[in-house]
Design a protein that fits this description.
Elements: E1 4-7, E2 10-13, E3 26-30, H1 35-46, E4 50-55, H2 58-68, E5 71-74, H3 80-90, E6 96-99, H4 115-142, E7 146-150, H5 163-182, E8 189-195, H6 203-207, H7 212-218, H8 228-239, E9 249-252, E10 257-259, E11 262-263
Parallel strand pairs: 3-4, 3-6, 4-5, 6-7, 7-8, 8-9
Antiparallel strand pairs: 1-2, 10-11
Helix pairs in contact: 1-8, 3-4, 4-5
Bound molecules: 2-hydroxyethylsulfonic acid (8X3).
2-hydroxyethylsulfonic acid binds at residues 152-154, 162, 165, 196-197.
């Protein structure tokens, strides 16, 4: 007989899907020092995961790990040595990898773009993600694990000034897409969450070199941009699904963003 849950005083049958029992399961979240990464670490910990919080800023991830009962591993995804240390810390079995490290730098048209910034975006979003994934794959396979790639709607369509970031996020998406094919007969879920406009403490500030007013303009008048917690909820939901359920790609935008360029502002 199916269990009953109560919604606003009414009883409704549950959906019949049994979420994973995550007791004793371990997750690595990269880019966990702020924004979506930190929020994902909190959401997973609240669901019972032991979370290894990985990022460059030791003070931030140590505070987060203390708060959620997880572990902090200082890791720079652009460094082989650093990522090898993360793999060692994760151990021989790992249930979940959330590839979140990365970000955007600049928003100049191609004509004027700083190609050094493009290199940095490629090194973090694409090569960093590939490096971490390579290093942790044996442990993920040993545990029948899941990889969640946090990409962006910037991988869906180009926009003015977006080319460098569009290319980096598209590159990251292709890692997920290729791996899902390459591993079709191996027991690792390959999932992607593709967020649209998310207002976090640092994303736009980093993009515009610390220029607060430019960063604020991105969200000006938008009734409710997504928050890091909104995206973290998607991570948590995917991670807890039964292992045979693979969410290939989940696109999540604020209600006010009907498409990349079509944003309702008051
Ligand atoms: C962020 C989305 O629209 O700034 O990943 O490219 S956007």
């Amino acid at each position: 007989m199916s269990a009953l849950i109560s919604i606003a005083g009414q009883s409704a049958p549950d959906c019949g899907v049994t979420r994973k029992n995550v007791g004793m399961s371990t997750a690595v979240v990269t880019g966990a020092s702020s924004g979506i990464g930190a929020a994902a670490a909190r959401a997973l910990a609240a669901d019972g995961w032991t979370v290894i919080c990985a990022a460059r800023r030791a003070d931030r991830i140590e505070a987060l790990a203390d708060e959620i009962g997880g572990r902090a591993v200082v890791c720079d995804v652009t460094s082989e040595e650093s990522v090898a240390g993360l793999a060692e810390a994760a151990g021989p079995e790992l249930d979940l990898l959330v590839n979140n490290a990365g970000g955007a730098i600049g928003q100049e048209p191609v004509e004027q773009a700083d190609l050094g910034a493009w290199e940095t975006m490629y090194r973090t979003n694409v090569l960093g993600t590939a490096r971490v994934t390579q290093a942790l794959l044996p442990a993920l396979e040993a545990a029948r694990g899941t990889i969640v790639f946090v990409t962006s709607t910037a991988a869906d369509a180009a926009y003015e000034g977006g080319a460098g970031y569009n290319a980096a996020k598209s590159g990251e998406r292709m890692i997920a897409e290729a791996m899902r094919l390459e591993l079709f007969d191996r027991d690792v879920r390959i999932c992607e969450i593709c967020p649209g406009m998310v207002r976090t403490e640092e994303f736009s500030l980093n993009r515009f070199g610390g220029d607060r007013s430019r960063a604020d303009q991105v969200y000006a008048g938008v009734p409710e941009p997504l928050t890091a917690d909104d995206v973290a909820e998607c991570v948590r939901w995917i991670a807890g699904l039964p292992h045979h359920v693979n969410i290939d790609r989940m696109t999540v935008r604020p209600r006010a963003q009907a498409a990349q360029h079509k944003v309702y502002r008051v």
